[in-house]
Amino acid sequence: MEKNRILSGIQPTGNLHLGNYLGAIKNFVSLQNKFDCLYMLADYHAITTDYNQAEIKNHIFETTAAFLASGLDNEKNIIFRQSRVSAHLELAWILNCVARLGWLNRMTQFKEKAGENKEKASIGLYTYPVLMTADILIYGATHVPVGEDQKQHLELCRDIAQKFNNDFKVKDFFKLPEPIIPTNVSRIMSLRDGTKKMSKSDPSDSSRINLKDSNDQITQKIRKAKTDNEPIKLNILDENSKRFEAKNLISIYASLQDKNVKEIIKEYDGKTFSIFKNKLIDVMIDKISPISNKIKEIQKDKAFIEKILDTSERKANKIANDNLVKIKNTIGLI
Ligand code: TYM
Q1: Is 197 a catalytic residue?
Q2: Which atom of ligand 1 is least distant from the CA of 188?
Q3: How many whole angstroms separate alpha carbon 205 and alpha carbon 226?
Q4: What pTM, to 2 d.p., does this model score?
Q5: Domains of the chain, start order
């Protein structure tokens, strides 16, 4: 029986952070034995907003190094650059003709990223969710591990796949992919403001833990992380609790140790955050610092990374091009 297939991606924009790790990469690693997996450096997505032309190649190498350093096996998984598989773009065009303007107008991430002046946003940023849909459907992926912020894009992907199947009367031609979202912490929040997600675009570096931070930086950032003055209590989990920062730190701790959030709260019940933060620092350094060291090590060998990508890209092109022929056939172009 054919194994279910996974496709996911990360924009190589530098500053990979704890949100990317706990929300996505950690899941990539745990899924690699159960699925046939493709993990992508989404470089075509990275150019939809201003980017550093001189640095993007380094960021691609660094993100690939982070995949490997976190435990992804390059023999088992296809780890590749989006821009080296042109079938993604061909399918994106076809799907642009299936997706509806009204659907894209609802995308909250476009609204957030375009900000006040959306007339000045690139068209690429606007149609980005369609390219993301093509990334997934060109491989017939059945599952997509992502953080919660990508959930709406996945719903759009399912809508587009469904409309394609209906329009061309090909029931089940595209499978409707299922998101795989971490249950413990679907969204890691900023260390400075628990209502904002941790993000590489936040101007304050102390709002996030970067995967390449030193032990000292991790220690300083956690010490400075915003909390409230209350002790740790189960009420942190109440639906209308405003203890966002407290919940975030506890969730991070739980996720780093693959434990349940409630379990952790019970363990620290009544304790202050100053005691808890020391434990969090220890656990974080224990988990992040080996990855950080490995990234730096692997990153030095650009020829090694290039070879891995190149080998994977041959495989990705084969699958994508074969599927593209079937798709063009279905829509009447072949
Ligand atoms: P990107 O590069 O913004 O983020 C990569 C992954 O990290 C997750 N993530 C988070 N998870 C939890 N808390 C956070 N604070 C946090 N910040 C980021 C994201 O949810 C994501 O899983 N459009 C995608 C890349 C992409 C893609 C795809 C993903 C392109 N094509 C096809 C899946 C399938 C993006 O910009 O992710």
Answers
A1: yes
A2: 13
A3: 14
A4: 0.96
A5: 5-185+302-331 (3.40.50.620), 205-297 (1.10.240.10)
